[in-house]
Queue: 2 jobs
Job 1
Amino acid sequence: MTGLVVGPAVPEAFLFLVATLLLGVGAFLPERRAAEVMTPVAVIVLLVTAMLVMAVGPGRAFAFGGHFVHDGFAAFLKVVALVVAAGAVLVAPGWFADERTARFEYPILALFSALGMLMMVSANSLLALYMAVELHSLPLYVMAAIKRDSLRASEAGLKYFVLGALASGLLLYGASLVYGFTGTLMFDELARAHAGAGAAPLPLGALVGLIFLVAGFAFKLAAVPFHMWTPDVYEGAPTPVVAFVAAAPKLAAVGLALRVLHEPFGAFADEWRQVIVLVALGSMILGAFAAIGQTNLKRLMAYSTIGHVGYAFVGLAAGTATGVQGVLVYMAIYAVMTLGTFACILMMRRQGRYVEAIDDLAGLSRTDPLMALALALLMFSLAGIPPLAGFFAKLYVFLAAVEAGLVWLAVVGVLTSVVGAFYYLRIVKLMYFDEPAEAFDRLRRPELQLVAAASAAFVALFLLWPTPLLSAAEAAARVLVGS
Amino acid sequence: MTAALFVFYLLAFVTVAAAVMVIAARNPVHAVLFLILAFFNSAGLLILVGAELVGMLLIVVYVGAVAVLFLFVVMMLDINFVQLREGFLQYLPVGALVGLVLLVELIMVLGTRVVPTTAAAMPRAAPEGVTNAEALGRLLYTDYFYLFQAAGVVLLVAIVGAITLTLRHRPDARRQDIAAQVRRRPQDTLEVRKVRPRSGI
């Protein structure tokens, strides 16, 4: 691998160059104008990058001396993450304009965060992993604190930053232990050193490092026992920022965790499985029970995220190709559902003020039947009620767990799903059977309606045409685990 | 060899002495100045073993940025250092014990390694025929080019974030408008009048 190979990283290079260019353009445009122009431009850039990713092709290719890898697995996650990120950027400007915090830096920070996500999914060495994680999370901290006159948003941003820095520290410590005990940074060399029967066992120090890496991933994914920051950040940060944080970055972090656990440490599934099972159990149980008493919709979504990450980890614990496929399908569907739900939350404005209490949704079916229908579909899907997409997502991860002999874990998953269904269905009950509260303001925001309607249609109609997602996820999984 | 040895002992002695003075000095500004002295002498030690780039970086980063930052903090914060130092002697036994334990641990860890005694067996600071900076630069701009660039992007995002979160456009602040300054003509603002003696305008 001599010479500088950039080819497979063209989408990333494009995203970086355009983001820096836009930064310059935004600095010289008048302030108000820059904020208006930047959002549609950023959405288009994200979608163009997704097309470039598809144009690179599914073959496995390395760039930059092996630190960067592009394969079918990376391509699948990149395309889904970019599309979801574009949706999250698209819904933001209305809220920011209403709250008088519109700034042109917001979409650009989102672009940089997306760049970090692409690099995470394509990381092929411990250092590339760390740099990518930093690049994707640093803009998120700034975005969470961007409404700097609000005490709660600043608190959320600071909390996110401090705890995120702690997670980065864990990740870096783990990486340094693995490097120190194995002597290599590259994932493929790590895999080769311990491949085959009778190969050298993993040194104890490297195993400790691996646990630290998993802890870092769990932190970024808001999985128990590293979930503490999630409810506060979700409640305090601006709603469009939460829509961004809750969807695309989770995809990238799951992708990174899958690659690290299956490629360099694939031979040690028995070692890391115990940790993953523990995290999955804790997340599912806490996500189901802690959400019951919540009155704030954003806080509820935080616990919902924790629970869903737990279900995804069930698939990860399986450690098989079907498990990886299940996780990929799960995270893609989860991201779409979450984005749609937040688009609905962004429509909850009453007398010029945004509200976010669950009770504010009372009787929505009579004041705004279409929004009630979309939100009800999304809630049914989040709960995992049969014909909707969320059911199939759960089905695949639980099937993979059963195939891998983790029947009891799947049983716990089903039981916590039943508990979790309670609070999702309570929202549906509020909307359809309670006395109507005052109607929400009529927002003229076609982009919110588009995102909400598109995700509702996706969860409702997934049953009719599931093959593209399923086969793409299967192909991606096969790249990682082999056939 | 003896000259190098003499320089080594001189630098090492001053480093240790300056480090002791950092904690012993009464005046915090003096402590920071002693810290700078310690940095300079450590840089000299690094240059002595042939790691001139690291030595220069130590001066640029630690003396140029970190120590100056310390000085600013010391001068800006209104901390009563005399009060802080109360009970210094009281904690000395505990501190000495912790230091001793740390020293024994370090010796146990490093003692297991074989320390080469001849110059030929020492690890070399740079490959044959290239300077230190060149060797590091070759690695950084070839094998680790991707990571180097990524670090640059992270720093760029940090700058953008810091500006986004702190820069405020105050409407009441008077800002320089160069275009308005250049547009200004004498006849708009100046009026030439003849002033007679012993009478005002």
Note: Residues 255 and 276 of chain A are 15 Å apart (CA to CA).
Job 2
Amino acid sequence: MFTNAQIDVNDLPRLDEVTLVPISKKFLYIILFNKLIVFAFVYGALIMASTFANDVLFTEYFQYLVFAVTSILILNLAFAVIAFRKRKYALRENDLIYSKGLLFLKITVVPISRIQHIEETRTWLARQFGLASLKIFTAGDSGTDLSISGLTEAEARKINDFLSTRVNAGN
Amino acid sequence: MILALGVSVFKKNAFANLSPIAIVIIIMLILIGLIIYSVLRYLNFKFHVSQDDFHLSTGILNKDNIVIPKSKIQNVNIKQNFFQQLIDVVSVNIETAGDDSSEIEISALDKGNANRLKEELFTKQSFDENLEMHVEANASNNDKVFFKASITRLLLEGVSENHFRSFLIIMSFFFGIYYEIKDYFENLSFEEQLENNINLAETAFMGTLLISLVFVLLFLLVSILFSVIKMLIINLNLEVIEHRKNIEINKGLFNKMSLALTPSRIQNLVIKTNRFKEWLNLYRLSVKQAMVNKKQQKNFKIVALDANQLEYLVNKLLKTYTKPEFYLKPDGYFKYILWLRLSIGFAVLNVPAYIIIGNYFWLVNFLFIAFTAIYVHIRYRKSGYCISNKFVTITSGFIDTVTHILELHKIQSVEMSQTIFQKRRGIASVIISTASKSVSIPYIKTTDAKSIVDSLLFKVESCKTDWM
């Protein structure tokens, strides 16, 4: 039987009512670790330059450079810590929601019926913390695919199973 | 890499010791080798069409056998480049769903065979479908040429193009050359003159202005010519042919091509026009399809349509589409952000203005402000969106008027984005992605954005139609 009842927009399931789940706190360590590695390289380059360069101008400004890099590092880390709390996800019956970003807030929603395939990856570092990332691929532009990092392995497996069964049931 | 380098060094040394005759012999050998290779490749390139599949075997030493089920073939395109036109053969492209690499090209077939192959590849599919299709196939077997672009209209289309981009390309091209041959110019003491002009700003101001005006006009003329020629080369003999299930586009002067549009694969439609074109009744329709590589995507453009043809074509591609009566507008914040962006850009531009013009540089800012005011006004006026039961229509543009149309059930993902400042003001943008393009509804109220996201998701998730 075909029905076509009017739908009140206010009665639709709302994004606002969803309680977004934060990702595992341990993922913050990974973010910080990655950032520190990058800055370690920068410091390394600076020290190398200071030992080998005999440019007067450079040695004179060396301490300012170090100061600048350090302040950028501190700001960057502080920002990462604050922004980390914004990384949240939610699984609904028909879609997957992921939101992140402090300065640039982004909420992405991918309907489960549009998922093409799912990839579960665990980097070496993530394995040490028992974490995993889920990459959700749709047929959309490569930029629109969803990737949730910092899920615990159990969570990732559960979400993966749920999505897989739903995607297969849909077809 | 290192190996290649080594080989090239080796060759260089070897060449030094060789007599001219030996070099000729080596070149001959290479040529003969190439000819033998191509003959072998030709002999080993075989394809045939069985009832359900397309078979292709290639390779001289490494044999490749490719089988494609007919039902999985997405598109068959026929192309003919300049050399192929000389010997009157065409190349046939068979596209399947998947990556760029899964595309098959048969590069030299005569026209009759190519068309037969195309028909052959599509026949099975229509048998597959139910009786209804069958009847329809019989009823409308006569394919009709729906639209043919005349040369005058193509010329008009070229002239009425947005020349800004080609203008910039030619400008940068010219200045590139100019810096290359600067030394010659220096002999003509052009530079000194220029410097004098800067120093004696007041007396020479008009002179410089005149020279730059002449140059700008010259560039403009060249860029118009450029657009027109480009338009003619790409789109000469543009034809749109209606088949029962799909639409075929034929076009090109040096690179003749024949492309098929299948309605089920269409993701977005983009209609482009501008004030001048609207007045000339010229519209351009770009069709964005899923799983077509970027280079190919550009070719699905139909230029020089008039309003009626456009409407007919849009309705053919998207059934039940009606042009929205009114559009909802972005928030006033859109104007604010445009002002902000342009002002920063122009503030920076004051520096070169000072260098070029001298003490009167601040006069330029009047121009900037006037431009910004017009720009913001037009951008805001042209931007709007409308979400109906089945379609999303978004308009935008400054010089061009661009209309994006997409079907709701083709949406792949929905995104809401806002910066921390926008969050405070309750502003957000909604980005809607399909399999071929993302479009955004910029800077609307957060509450509206949320309800749009909710309703779009509801429609996508509740509808049973697949996106392809």
Note: The first strand of chain A starts at residue 21 and ends at 22.
